[in-house]
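pinging the channel bc i need a second pair of eyes. not urgent but kinda urgent?? the chain im working w is below, pasted from the shared doc
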Amino acid sequence: MSGGESLISILNLGNIVIGFFSVIFLFYTNSFLIKRRKKEIGLFNILGMGKKHISKMIVWESFFVAVSSLVIGLTSGMIIGKLMFLFLSNILHFDVPLTYFVSTKSIGITLILFLSIFVLTLLNNLRHIHLAKPIELLRGGQVGEKEPKTKWVLVIIGVATLASGYYIALVTESPLAALNKFFLAVLLVIIGTYALFTAGTIALLKLMRKNKGFYYQTKHFISVSGMIYRMKQNAVGLANICILSTMVLVMLSSTVSLYIGMEDVINNRYPKEIDISANNISEEQAQVIENIIHEEAEKYQIEIVDPLHYRSADFPAIREGNTFTTDRTTINSLTNISMLELISLDEFNQLEEQSAKLEDNEVLIYTFKGQPVVNTITISGQEFQIKNQLKKLSLTGDSSGMLTDGYFVVVKDEETIKSLYPVEELEEVEWKDLSYFSGFDAKGSTENEIALTKALSQKLKDASIDGYAEGQEESRESFYSIYGGLFFLGLFLGALFIMATVLIMYYKQISEGYDDKERFAIMQKVGLSKEEIKKAIKSQVLIVFFLPLVAAVIHIAFAFKVITKLLALLNLTNVGLFVICTFTTISIFALFYAVVYTITAREYYKIVS
């Protein structure tokens, strides 16, 4: 199918992400489980079992867990795989000639991956048992923490890097600049997030402790004092959850927007239903192309509606005031670039059905995107007077999807265009003549429209013309395969990461519940009521649970502008749609969070009481 190779690449990328994530997530859950069993293993050791026997027991346990997990996992995977395949086929909007089958290669890779994970976690567990002393195993995770110091330098670094990342996201205007700066902004925000969760949260909790009116309320006293000591080991985990949550929200909102806004994407990419583009075309060749278009349209029973065609020359330039210069080194830096499209007066009058006139040093100018150029314009060292600023142009399309600023400049004749075109500066030795564009809407059956588009490309090739035809219907399958694949992968990974995020939070809080059990028992003995314990637990769990989510939403809010610029690179300029998808994604994610928070708080209370 069209776009099939891109779809395969997208899904293979998903395989890699899931593989890495499985290693990280299973190591985390294993660390939680082995921590809970340390006391049991220590007791076995005290009662006479040697570490050799305990290791043998752990090996057999791991063997049974691995076998049962793989059998159940592979079986359910084969069943659910069929449903996933049907879901993917439905997303693509096409009856693709594919049938679902069980891939022995996939089974083999899955077996190798998860057997490797089981072996590595087993070796890690055996290392813990071998190195630990019996008394350490008996005490398990009950080793106390010293009060962490406030690291103000790290707080300042965190604030500075986070503010820098936010600033880059807010001031970036050009989609090309967004592509360059986005990953720098992401890196700065990640560093800032880790720094502020590691040092900033401790500083904030200590400031809370200094507020006597707030701190000496029972529910705040227990949660704040406990979290100050606990935050040292929790900070990195909470930062991980924050970054993971941000990634889920960005991935889901973006891929859902792209898929739902597919028609907007196609319309932005192809303003006319069928477009023909060709390079180095003389007036005679342009007439040949026009004849081919009409002959083929008649052959495929397609009525040509609202046609337009013209010859022009376009090239990138660096704008400084009203001066546009072409320098290969500067242009390669992708900063402050504008696209100039030059067209002769005759072509313009034919295109717009006008009878405008120009002197040698005069031009007309239309601003597609960017700051208007007024009074004069200098191109390749030649200065021109701007006779008129054009208010509209027959060329259609959404200018917000343009990667750079764009200007349509009408000059007196073709000789002027050729004198301005920077062949040497751009090192385009093959440039000999103007480019040609023709576009029209097609009235006829979808099948004939697709056939016509393909036939036009072949006819241009047969006529030795360096050009091609493309259109909305002919490209629709390719767009759906790429954006549908991204949508499928976004939903799949989003669901996986949401599950992992809430499970990590659940494991973390339950683990702390076991650690806090004896502490709360002591508090009850000195007079703390069960109702006060419940309030303190809700306060503590609420802060730990929702702090990463609140931080993730703030990250999304600051990143919103730069994400819309990146979506413009993919021809999606419907910002309103992205707003709705982002808000819906955050709401659904927060709902999952709230459900797990309620369950966790209840389980935590049962453990400590």
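so DSSP finds 18 helices and ten strands in the chain. and The chain has a mean pLDDT of 82. — does that match what u expected or am i reading it wrong
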